[in-house]
Amino acid sequence: MxxxxxxxxxxxxxxxxxxxxxxxxxxxxxxxxxxxxxSYLNNFNRTDFHEFWEGNNALQVDLETPFYMGGLFLSGxxxxxxxxxxxxxxxxxxELSVGFGLSKDILENVSIGGSIGLLFxxxxxxxxxxxQKRFAQEGFASxxxxxxxxxxxxxxLKYSFTELWGVQIEVSRSIIYTNKKIQLNYVxxxxxxxxxTPSFIEKILK
Length: 206
What we know:
CATH class: Mainly Beta
CATH topology: Porin
Largest sheet: 8 strands, antiparallel, barrel
Shape: elongated
Distance between the termini: 43 Å
Structural class: alpha+beta
CATH architecture: Beta Barrel
Number of helices: 4
Number of strands: 9
Number of domains: 1
């Protein structure tokens, strides 16, 4: 499945659908509530990267809050990748993303959303063998850690079965700028809970 222009189309659709809501949005709604979500994701795409490493299922935690015309989000994701060649080390991947998104109610209790964020990625390699240390000199971190940056693009479909609880389906792409760009597409399911922002946090944010 090719996703070359998928997020561009989704983004333009959401902006179009959300236009009236964007114009009507009240600035006083910013930071008034926080959504806390937990998701279970699967890395489903296959690239050159996946010829050398096999991705496992990922866990994700999200924080979202209204901000003027849309919302701000902070996301943390964990995944591990197993080596398919002995000369390569297996590793754990930690992603932290911060960004902005838009959403639109399309049915009662159902909304669609899209977001873009700046991504910070940490690769934590297992203890390297002598062969892996020699290979690491060709471009992989020999000290066990590697830090990279990139972008996160995501879209979601949410259903709220109460004012405070809901479920969501998410499709996302992480683009990580290592020596050779890594693209990881995920699809997943999660739950979220909405609560009022504590007053002291709201004062800090405002």
